[in-house]
Design goal:
The protein is of the alpha/beta class and 312 residues long. It is built from 10 helices and 12 strands.
Length: 312
């Protein structure tokens, strides 16, 4: 029997479907998680507190496989897990559909200036003309990061008649490599950022990149705030050197109430809500976990498996 420690909130989704070789133990509090962690071979220890998660990982010395619903791995002691030989599967792609929907929503809201429409309704004012007249049709988008989110974004934008170019390591039709995209930035109306947060992607959009964009180009960031030099972005927006920024993520989070991004008319801040705009995250995570359980039992590769060297 393989001792598997799981959050009791997942019990209705998992218990009846667990294979017979799994000895499931459920925790409903952090103290119960701490007590059960030392016995776990497989663990799913997502918690709100990073300090609590760190304590669980310290205690879980028999762990061979750690699962998480979180896509980002900043809260995990990757060096410790790697040294212990623990496999880590994360939530990469679990939220891809709602995040991609959010990207399209933000782009449409900006193109039609839908915020002005809502404000007019609040004032009980009947507008005589549309405050925004841009169309997605015929525009060009560059997608930085072609994982699950980037792929879902491409599918939706293609349906709107947007010409999509993506950035990935391997060349191909409609693809720019990591060495090519900066020189082509001036061609695009939309820059959609969906890369993982790593040392290599920190401030990948900075003064030079903002300066290379078209004057009407719009940044859409659903990755992490760290991928943009935020001070440089604020300056570019204040000076109207780019068309706008649609930011689901910022640095820091929450964004301080007096931060200039809140007040800029050419910026939208959506408080890291894109992945939360759904009701299926636990169902999707449970289905993936069950598939991976069978792979684990057969000695097959788990997906998505975090690459400790790459940091995602």
């Amino acid at each position: 029997m393989t001792i598997t420690v799981l959050n009791a909130l997942l019990r209705p989704l998992l218990e009846a479907r667990l294979p017979g070789w799994v000895d499931a133990r459920w925790y409903a509090s952090k103290d119960e998680a701490f007590a059960l962690a030392p016995e776990a071979e497989i663990g799913w220890f997502d918690m709100h507190s990073k300090a609590d998660m760190a304590e669980v990982f310290r205690l879980a010395t028999r762990l061979k496989w750690l699962n998480s619903v979180y896509a980002g791995v900043e809260a995990f002691p990757l060096d410790v897990l790697e040294a212990r030989g623990v496999m880590l599967t994360n939530g990469a792609g679990i939220n891809a559909v709602p995040i991609a929907e959010y990207v399209v929503m933000l782009m449409l809201a900006h193109a039609k200036d839908y915020r002005a429409v809502v404000r007019a309704q609040d004032r009980h004012e009947w507008l005589k003309d549309s405050p925004g007249k841009r169309e997605l049709y015929g525009s060009k988008a560059l997608i930085l990061g072609y994982g699950a989110i980037g792929q879902e974004v491409e599918a939706r934008l293609a349906a709107f008649g947007v010409e999509v170019t993506k950035v990935r390591r391997s060349a191909g039709p409609g693809v720019l490599t990591s060495d090519e995209w900066r020189a082509r930035l001036g061609e695009f109306d939309w820059i959609v950022i969906a890369v993982p947060a790593t040392a290599d992607t920190e401030h990948m959009i900075g003064v030079a990149e903002l300066g290379a964009m078209k004057a009407e180009a719009v940044l859409v960031n659903v990755a992490r705030g760290s991928v943009i030099d935020q001070a440089a972005l604020v300056a570019a927006l204040q000076e109207r050197r780019i068309g706008g920024a649609l930011l689901d993520v910022t640095t820091p989070e929450p964004l301080p109430g007096d931060h200039p991004l809140w007040a800029l008319e050419n910026a939208q801040v959506t408080m890291h809500l894109s992945g939360r705009a759904q009701n299926k995250v636990f169902e999707r995570s449970a289905e993936r976990f069950l598939v991976n359980l069978e792979r684990y039992h057969r000695g097959e590769r788990l997906e998505p498996l975090v690459d400790y060297a790459a940091g995602y």
